[in-house]
Amino acid sequence: MDDARLRTGEEPFPSRALPIGSPGRKSSGWYGMMMLITTEASLFVYLLFSYFYFAIWSGGSFLPSELPKFNLSAPDTAILLLSSVVVWWGEKGARKGSHTQLSLGLLAGIVLGTIFVGVQIMEWADKPYQLNTSSYSSLYFIITGFHMVHVVVGMLILLALLVWSLLGYFDRQRHAPVVIGAIYWHFVDAVWIAVFFTIYVSPHLG
Amino acid sequence: MTRSLPDRLRVLWETVPGFYGWIASVDHKSIGIRYLVTSFIFLLLGGLEALVMRIQLAQPGEHLLTPEQYNQLFSMHGITMIFLYALPVLSGFSNFLFPLVLGARDMAFPRLNAFSYWVYLASGLFMYASFLVGAAPDDGWFNYAPNSLRTFSPGPNMDFYALGMIFLGISTTVGAANFVVTVMRMRAPGMSIARLPILVWGTTTVSAGILFSVPAVSLAFFMLWLDRSFGTHFFDARSSGQPMLWQHLFWIFAHPWVYIIVLPAMGLVSDALPILCRRPIVGYALVVLATILTMVLGFGVWVHHMFATGLPMVASSFFSGASFIITIPSAVATFAWVATIWTGRPVFTTAFLYFAGFIVMFVIGGVSGVVTAAVPADLQLTDTYFVVAHIHYVLIGINLFGVLGAFYFWFPKLFGRLLDERLGRWNFWITFIGFNIAFLPMHLTGLMGMPRRIYTYPNDFGLGLVNMITTVGSFLLAIGILLFMINIWISLRNNTQAPDNPWGAPTLEWVTSSPPPPYNFALIPAVASRHPLWEEQLHAGVSHSVLDRGFVLDHGKEALATTILDAEPDVILKMPEDTPWPFILTLAMSAGFTAMLIQSWWGTGMAGLAILVCLGFWLWPKRSMVQIASADHG
Amino acid sequence: MTGQFLKRLGAVTATALALSPAMALADEWVAGHPVDGQWHFQRSVTPIMDAITSFHDGVLMWTVSLIVLLVLALLIIVMVRFNSKANPVPSKTTHNTALEIAWTVLPVLVLFIIAVPSFGVLTDQLTIPDGVRKYLGGDILFGQVEVPAAALTIKATGQQWYWNYDYVDDDISFDSNIMGDAEREEKKPGQPRLLAVDNELVVPVDTTVRMQITSDPSGVIHAFAVPSFGIKIDAVPGRLNETWFNARETGIFYGQCSGPVRQGSCLHADCGAGGDQGRIQDLDGGVQGGRL
User: What is the value of ipTM here, to two decimals?
Assistant: First the structure.
């Protein structure tokens, strides 16, 4: 049938059957997601730049008397990392064509993400300061808040993927949206490591 | 299957006429033209603002404007020219030309492309709506805190600017992502990266720059908005905020931005100028390298806008040194253009004149840049009219002159009509002379010490004459632009069809008709050199681009994706149909930003939900676009 | 010794107001502002401004003008000699390594020529004199100008819209407001509108003055600038910036707020709060500084 695709003469390139659509990583969407991640990563670089700018200029005096603690944040970090692992496992299922594994992985990712958000909200509620209390509190809430928004967006993506998976849109050959959505979720988790180090670890290093 | 291939493709690709087609079209050519027209309207608005200011400044002590009106005018002039004209006009050219020079049928993300335009238009209208309530931004385009905080600026002026810039940033970002992915994926077979036209290099480089720099300014404006609306303490020095953080975040974005709005124009010139000299550009690799190097170095010089803020010596020296170095790639590009003319056979069309004028003004703007990179001189000149003269030489010289030349050059491809050459010459000379009369004496105004952004100045200081000359020149410049519009109007009314390749150019956009059909190329060309149409003269017997046969791709809206480096055929892509969702999503976002402006959180929430619904409709997978691993679907 | 200075200065400041008509005279012979027919920097009265003027008028102007003329000449020559009539067969050369290296190295050399004196002058500007270090002055390559150690420190605080000056070693502090048209006509008719202020900053001639510049913490960013002295530095809330000058001539020297503030309003003559102006004047052996 491919011959019908050429009007005259032979194909200028070695003739082979080209895939149609965007299976796997070859989809344009995957490249698009890479662009989104690039620019979002830059956003977090500037957020953390602002934090360290304050930290350096104030000589540490901008930190609150009670430094951020690990009792909630450390387990929360573990939960978020675990969510990356289960989503990765689900994605592996998609490659094998297993709807069950994919759906389970996505569902587990959403549940763990929800727990992360819940714990984070508890931590916010515990703070003795609010958004407009001081420069530190403004930075604390804007950085963790931006990350929280990304987690929520990531969960919405996982939710959409779960619905599409249950509706049978994906199979072994075509699951580009799963790959694209999963990479975003991994990005959100990776950013948390940087946020965690900046907000929770770096004050204890000084 | 009795209809001819072009007819079948036309049915598949053509946008339906009427209102629905108008809001739903994802054709990169109509989106490109919309970008060009809209940005040109913003250019005219910004120009009118400038003329009003020049009347105010023509003589000492005039009272045409109040200081507050003057503040709003110079702020909106800067915002309009830098954000709403300079990049969008280049995006217009890139949108129109990318698929054509790459031998593709459309951009990688046609719907995102439409979305990018609608958001640009909506954010421009959003910022201009501030005039309707008499509260336009009034702290200059760089909007220094703490002067832009609620304490000193209680009105909604800064909220319009802050939210408008975040809104516009979305358009800029998705547009940039689209250009990068298009270059990675949508090139004709054989168009390896060493065969890319320089305009593609220019736009792709700055698109990468946009992805890294725009978040800085979006964040800065978001923080400013939080400071203003929720009493956070980012920039407010009274409660340990850091006013200087604003300057850092702003210039980390805005210095790369001034390269972002000139490098694509340099790319347009680097491609078109050699064609008018009947030869390939001298030093292709050097010019490409210079483009990339300028962008990369552009991220390392932001502090040179802050020399007077009291920096440590090591910082002053480092950023001064970096600012010297960044002129070297520009010098290299300039020599490449001159050498191209030198070794070529130039034909003096209007476009050529614009490009030659571009080179001269680029050099003047470049050396006045060196003057300000030298900190001792800069400390005298910063915030004076010298800097105003410098930025206008750079932006009008490189951007506007490059763009006007590009209009004369690509107009036949855009609209299928040639612009009149005789009127064009008048247009060029009046614009060129008017511009130089307006801005050359402005260097002196700055040397004499006149600060920028003052709404009037004292008598008897010898500032009256230079300012009057500048005002006269600016009106001459405006007449030049008027002639340009008259030329366009006459050409569009004229019924003479332009030839497909009026300049005898070598690149793919000239293979197809003027203007191109909705599907661009009936057969996807395969290229074997940088100059597919000049191979007989340049590479006889060596390279053979194939233009008269190739992939047909007529089983629905299909395009070819190729590999990143060598551009070997990779995948056949199913391209999206026209869709109204980008437009509807933009409406929802406009509602959201308006709700934030009037601080209606209920409205913001509703708009947020609407946005999610729109995205759902947009991204829902379609069974008709199934992806199949191999091409046996007949 | 400094204390003595300042006591005298206090007296001099007071006198400045009383003697204001005399200042109109001073205006005529030292114009500390732009004048009709001027086409370059304002006249220099400090070693730093000597260096800046010499750097700008010498190295910078010559190199940049030559570059512009060179490219312009090249363009005109090639357009005349190599147009399509004169040169029907374009060369196909796409690159020439020797030439490409030449046109990359050339700009580097030019920049080097500019950068060396530039960094020298910059170092002078940013180093407060200690009495030992030599300064470049007008000879920006080999200059060895002696500048005495700073004998006087003045803190200038930008307010909306006036300057507050504080002689920090003494207890003298006062505000300096721009004068509206009516007040100026009445008190200092010889002085320029939009620049004249009520209380000038007064400083001694031939003395090194350390200026500390800041802004009211609850205010906005201003800039302290006196073109004839070669100083311009931002006044940022929460930051203390430093610069210095040593003026050799007496007179009234004006500066204008160059900061990124709402200048349209702060310079408005009808604006009641006054404006940001700087000026320096001389009286009785003392240079009097203005405010910005």
Answer: 0.92
